[in-house]
Specification:
It is a single chain. By secondary structure, the chain is an alpha+beta fold. It has two domains: 57 residues; 101 residues, Sandwich (Immunoglobulin-like), CATH 2.60.40. The protein is built from three helices and nine strands, in the order H-E-E-E-E-E-E-H-H-E-E-E. The strands form two sheets. Strands 3, 4, 5, 7 and 8 form a five-stranded antiparallel β-sheet that branches. Strands 6-2-1-9 form a four-stranded mixed β-sheet.
């Protein structure tokens, strides 16, 4: 009887051990699967972000408002990306937040590497009053915003790129 009781206890003990081990194994497997899936999703997200960043860099526009030698206002537009760009909308915002002028049509088409310098009035006739007075433009125009046909928006900076007091960085 004692042998039968002992084997019964061993059987129950083995069954309890298996019953405890099985859920633990399932839990560990589920956690490992979750970690693996999370790692894969993170890797794919990073790859997608890198692809998007590379695509955006292909259409990069740098817009700078400069002071000419005779106090004229000049707007330098540089197509720094690797794809052609069409500027299809321009808006000039004043320091009071109001719209000074806006133009909704193809204004300029640039090939990669094109670097053009124009007067504000060339971009929009509503800005002609600033052509020969940089300091007036600096006082009254907070920003020039250019929109491209592929949906990107670029803000003009005051002074050349790389100077410390650039007002707004492109994009």
């Amino acid at each position: 009887m004692r042998g039968a009781m002992s084997s019964w206890r061993k059987a129950v003990s083995a069954a309890v051990s298996v019953a405890m081990l099985l859920p633990t194994a399932v839990l560990v497997s589920t956690l490992l699967l979750g970690v693996t899936m999370q790692t894969e999703m993170s890797r794919r997200a990073e790859a997608n972000a890198a692809d998007l960043k590379a695509e955006e860099a292909k259409k990069l526009l740098r817009v700078t408002i400069l002071r000419g030698p005779s106090n004229e206002s000049l707007v330098n537009i540089y197509a720094a990306g690797k794809l052609p760009i069409q500027v299809d909308y321009l808006i000039a915002i004043g320091y009071d937040g109001g719209i000074i002028t806006e133009r909704d049509e193809i204004i300029l088409a640039l090939r990669p590497g094109d670097n053009v310098t124009v007067t504000p009035g060339w971009l929009d006739p509503g800005l002609e009053g600033y052509n020969n007075d940089f300091w007036r433009m600096r006082r009254e125009v907070r920003s020039l915003i250019l929109h491209t046909s592929d949906g990107n928006t670029f803000y003009a900076s005051w002074e050349p790129w790389g100077k410390e007091f650039v007002a707004t960085i492109a994009r």
